[in-house]
Amino acid sequence: MGLTRFSGQQVVAAIIFFLLLASPPFLSSFLLTLLTQALIYGILAMSLDIILGYTGLASLGHAAYFGIGAYSVGILATRYGAAFGITLPAGVLLAVLVAAIFGTVALRATGVYFLMITLALGMIVWGLAHRWVTMTQGDNGISAIPRPDLGLPWSLSLSIPFYYFALAGFLIAFWILRVIVRSPFGQTLVGIRESESRMRTLGYHVWLHKYIGFVIAGGFGGFAGVLWAYYNGFVSPVDLQLATSVEVLLMVALGGRGSLIGPALGAGIIVLLKNLVSVYTHRWLLILGAVYILTIVYAPEGILGAIKRRTKEVKPRAVGVHGLTEGEIEGG
Amino acid sequence: MSTKRIAAICGVLVLALTVDVVPAWPQKGPIKLGFLTQMTGGGAAVGKDMSNGFMMSLEEISNQIVGRKVEVIIEDTQGDPAQALTRLRKLVESDKVNAVAGIFLANEGYALAPKVDEYRIPTVWAVVSADDLTQRKPTKYAVRTGWTSSQPNHPFGEYAAKTLGYKRVATIAMDYAFGWEQVGGFQRTFEEAGGQIVQKLWPPLGTTDFGPFLAQIKRDADAVFAVMVAASSLRFPKQYQDAGLKARLPLIGGGTSFDEFVLPALGDEAIGAISPLIYSAAIDTPVNQRFVKEFRKKYGKVPGYYAEASYTAARWIAEAAKAVGGNVEDKEKFLAALKKVEISDAPRGPIKLDTYGNPIQNIYVRKVEKRDGELWNTVIQTFTGVSQFWKYKPEEFLKQPVYDRNYPACKYC
């Protein structure tokens, strides 16, 4: 067979990549804005996957880093006219810094307690956005954030160039995160997820690994936030409220945690469902709810997990770890 | 993975990516209007009132404007500014609407404003009341048919000092821009008329237990000015009464604390409360009586200002479209017409716009009373032709910052 050199997975990935690259000129501009949104949310979901999927810690405060990235852009670009070359590092570094502080608090706990602490920390950032009016303009949000000017011949205020801009961001984030999760460091995170005590016995500094993973996730969350602020030209406390954190968590769970591509897929599905189904009915939440329930019942390892299980029934599991976490999650 | 399966997946993907939501329409088809409001989540009931009012207005003209059919596409903002932006993109880029109306929340308004100008899409802010949308950050392509948050409270501050005779008032308001702007407007004119704001309390948005705040209220004030919204509007008056305050300190407040949206759910505890707004269902004009009767027949409830403002917004668009002979495709002319509309017989009374695109209209001081077993906002005083700048010169008014938590400062606290 001609396909023997490549696995089906790789072929699908190549086709999706090709479609992402080549389809924009043929799409309606509304669909294109949805895809752009999906890419940005995809980065956020992938970053959460580092702690949720690979390290096994469910965070309910991930929107905080997203919001910090977005607010950095909002404040710097509208007040000081800062260029992309400043807002990007500022947004990412600030998110890293906050994650570094929050990590020291949150990583004292695991399971439900970790969930609660991250929730509380996320709410602190939300409260700050809401109440520090002189800086954030409070509930009204910061509007009229200009699109970045990269000195390219194409203006990013048009939807097709901005789509490619977001796509580039997505691919860079995906590539870096993929290198990270495949590195010995990433494998250690998986080991910690599977059995913290065993890893500790083997001599790994468990806390430090988790901490670094947590900070990396925060940084990429901030990166997604930077793109989001430019995409919308607007940032408000809604971007970092609890509902946003929950939505990202659902994206990861729906797509399939611990796979990077899965969460990105989940982000795409949720963004499209939210926007396309609601064109036909205002009861779209019912449909979204049904999708979640069906996923939990029939594909608890997420959509990608289900596809993998079906297509790879004969082969041993790639990392051989999915079964274990299921039990753990349900138990917790 | 078999080749067949891969092919199937590809097929589905291609299909999913290329399906356009709505095809482009020919130039002279129906007039298409986009209506943005919240249809799911906490504000869904408000969104329903808004869309009902809007649709009812168009049905009364048989969905026809100078021979052209009117088509409305209602989109759900979910109370999320980012989602509101996405919906605006859809309405303008995919549906190719000729105008957009609606909008409930301030942050949605601020998020959409720059995009509205970028798209150059004529827009009517029906309900969103954030002051700066028609003050310090005006949108070129939008007009407002509702009100600014401080607008009703300017005359009311003066009224409270001069007519009600209060000298010292404590305020308790939801802690966000809508609350700040209402309290700010009230405070400014109340203090200029000789009154004193002696306390400002700010319960967070969504507070339902006001115990800790009610305990703090200064008992030596003459009255309490409350700005509540949604669920807090429902709970506050009862808790105010239960705390034994109703008998000691008269309750006055911003319009949404006691509007028709919450009145049916309130009990006798609300009776006697006085508040100002651009509308009351109890306005005693034939036009309004008919509007209330028809709305009630159709949707089974008394219309509040959300419904009236959206009803009038649709009328506004229809009048402007008529003025340009139905040629709404000429955006600039249509926009100019929107800015020139004057309506003398809206349910709320006569309306025209100031040069900033905000209505000059009547402000009604209303008192909650029981009539035939129902609560109504009886109009006890009408201020006619009130502008968002009240009696101040617009240029001078705009030099001061927008009202917020600490502006005007609480000098007598």
Number of helices of chain A: 15
| End-to-end gap of chain A | 45 Å
The outline of chain A comes out as globular
Return the structural class of chain B.
alpha/beta
For the report, how would you describe the main beta sheet of chain B?
Answer: 6 strands, mixed
pLDDT averaged residue by residue of chain A = 88
Biggest sheet character of chain A: none
| Quaternary organisation | heterodimer
Number of DSSP helical runs of chain B: 12
Beta fraction of the residues of chain A? under 5%
Order of helices and strands of chain A: HHHHHHHHHHHHHHH
CATH fold label of the largest domain in chain B: Rossmann fold
CATH class of the largest domain in chain B: Alpha Beta
**What is the CA–CA distance across the termini of chain B?**
74 Å
Question: Which chains share the greatest interface?
Answer: A-B, 47 and 47 residues
Are there runs of chain B of 5+ residues with pLDDT below 50, and where?
Answer: 13-26
Q: What portion of residues of chain B belong to β-strands? A: 15-25%
Basic shape of chain B: globular
Could you please describe the fold and organization of this structure?
The complex is a heterodimer of chains A (332) and B (413). Chain A has 332 residues and is mainly alpha-helical. Chain A has a domain at 29-241. Chain A is built from 15 helices and no strands. Mean pLDDT of chain A is 88; it is low at 315-332. Chain B has 413 residues and is of the alpha/beta class. Chain B folds into 2 domains: 31-148 and 286-357, 3-Layer(aba) Sandwich (Rossmann fold), CATH 3.40.50.2300; 153-277 and 362-399, Response regulator (Rossmann fold). In chain B, 38% of the residues lie in helices and 21% in strands. Chain B is built from 12 helices and 15 strands. Chain B has helices spanning 3-18, 44-60, 81-94, 106-119, 153-162, 177-192, 211-216, 230-242, 286-299, 305-323, 331-340, 394-399; strands at residues 31-37, 64-65, 68-76, 99-102, 123-125, 142-144, 168-173, 196-201, 223-227, 251-253, 274-277, 342-346, 349-353, 359-371, 374-386. A 6-stranded mixed sheet of chain B has the order 2-3-1-4-5-6, with helices on both faces. In chain B, strands 11, 12, 13, 14 and 15 form a 5-stranded antiparallel sheet that branches. In chain B, strands 8-7-9-10 form a 4-stranded parallel sheet, with helices on one face. Residues 13-26 of chain B have low confidence and may be disordered. Chains A and B meet through helix 1, helix 2 and helix 12 of A and helix 1, strand 3, helix 3 and helix 4 of B.
